[in-house]
Design a protein that fits this description.
Length: 148
C-alpha cells in the first residue's frame, strides 16, 4: 500500500514522502496514529499543491534574506562613547546597542543573529558578523569613536 507521510517517521521517510509499506502496517499503525494518509489521486494532488505553496513561501523568505543582506553589505555603523583611559571606553558596546543602531538604519533583525563574541570595550573599527541564515553571513563594520 502506498501512503503519504504527514510527519517524519524514523527509518521510513520525511513528511510529504510517498512510501510503499505493508497493508497491515499502514492500516493498523500509520493511518490511525495520523502519521500517514492513503495515497490516491485526491491526496496526491493535495500534496502537490502543498509543495507548491511551501516552495513559494521558501522563495519569498529567501528573497527577503537577500534584500536584507544587500542592505547590510558595506554598512558602516558609528557609535560614540566616553573614554576612561587612552582607548578604553566607559561601559561597552553590546549586541543590544548594535541592534538599536541597525533599527535606526531601518534594518530589523533578531538579537541572536548578531555574532558578537564579547562586548566591545575599546575604541576602534570592528568587523561584526551577522548570521541571516545557516549559509548566509554578512559582515558589517562598527566604528567606536570617542565622545567629545
Amino acid at each position: 500500500m502506498e501512503v503519504i507521510l504527514r510527519t517524519d517517521v524514523p527509518k521510513l521517510g520525511k513528511a510529504g514522502d510517498v512510501v510503499k509499506v505493508k497493508d497491515g502496517f499502514a492500516r493498523n499503525y500509520l493511518i490511525p496514529k495520523g502519521l500517514a494518509v492513503p495515497a490516491n489521486q485526491k491526496t496526491l494532488k493535495a500534496l502537490e499543491n502543498q509543495r507548491k505553496i511551501f516552495l513559494a513561501k521558501a522563495e519569498r523568505a529567501k528573497r527577503k534574506l537577500l534584500t536584507t543582506a544587500e542592505k547590510l553589505k558595506g554598512l558602516v555603523l558609528t557609535t560614540y562613547r566616553k573614554t576612561i583611559e587612552e582607548d578604553r571606553i566607559f561601559g561597552s558596546v553590546s549586541t543590544a546597542d548594535l541592534l538599536n543602531l541597525l533599527k535606526e538604519k531601518g534594518i530589523e533583525i533578531d538579537k541572536k543573529q548578531i555574532l558578537l563574541e564579547e562586548p566591545i570595550k575599546k575604541l576602534g573599527i570592528y568587523e561584526i558578523p551577522i548570521k541571516l541564515s545557516s549559509d548566509l553571513i554578512v559582515n558589517i563594520k562598527l566604528e567606536v569613536l570617542e565622545e567629545k
